[in-house]
Amino acid sequence: xxxxxxxxxxxxxxxxxxxxxxxxxxxxxxxxxxxxxxxxxxxxxxxxxxxxxxxxxxxxxxxxxxxxxxxxxxxxxxxxxxxxxxxxxxxxxxxxxxxxxxxxxxxxxxxxxxxxxxxxxxxxxxxxxxxxxxxxxxxxxxxxxxxxxxxxxxxxxxxxxxxxxxxxxxxxxxxxxxxxxxxxxxxxxxxxxxxxxxxxxxxxxxxxxxxxxxxxxxxxxxxxxxxxxxxxxxxxxxxxxxxxxxxxxxxxxxxxxxxxxxxxx
Length: 265
Ligand SMILES: [Fe+2]
Fold this sequence. Notes:
It is an enzyme of class 1 (oxidoreductase). The chain has helices at residues 22-38, 45-54, 64-75, 88-96, 120-128, 134-149, 152-167, 182-185, 188-194, 206-210, 230-236, 240-250, and strands at 78-82, 99-103, 170-173, 176-179, 200-203, 222-226. It is of the alpha/beta class and 265 residues long. The chain has one domain: Aromatic amino acid hydroxylase (Phenylalanine Hydroxylase), CATH 1.10.800. The longest helix is centred in the N-terminal third of the chain and has 17 residues, at 22-38. The model has no long low-confidence stretch (mean pLDDT 95). The site of fe (ii) ion has 7 residues, from helix 5 and helix 8. Fe (ii) ion binds at residues 118, 122, 126-127, 167, 182-183.
């Protein structure tokens, strides 16, 4: 998680509503239109079903209560407004309480194509549809509970599991490779890149994932696939912390990316 942000989340007013400007709604509208086109034939069925359920407005940023009504009904989840950046403690605490943190700001037009920080478009378009799926929701809840209870050095391992599933997860289906990770689904560049033949795509083994280093500022050189969304439910029932202990014993894999240039900030 980055240490500072140039963005500030918008505070809800007395009615609990966030007042978005015309320009902010316009940015949302253009992001949604572009990404809906981009994910055709690429997003998994569960995501598309979830998208229908949450019934996202295309012309304006939705208010969080609109999403909460659907999430509450489907899986008992909620979205919670948070500042642009929150620490791991707060992140895990929210997930452990079935609250998905949503930073209530949207990217500026200058950063329309790429934004490293998660804005409201990433959080809602990328993640909320999947949170209507019971297996995905259970996995995310379990992850929050484990992370909240875990020590700092174990959280780093758990973070890899989240990264390669909730953020950058792929699924092998009878129709071909499909995406369920919100980090990909909210990024036109990465959605295309997954199918470019460039990245390595391996079947997900929890122990392997826990041992795989990643960088947040590049296209992922490696993705892991599940075979069905219920695989996430099965993982949520595993003794994940035992796998973390094993991963710590075995150590990390060699990174598949060059070291970050220390001169670049
Ligand atoms: Fe995310």
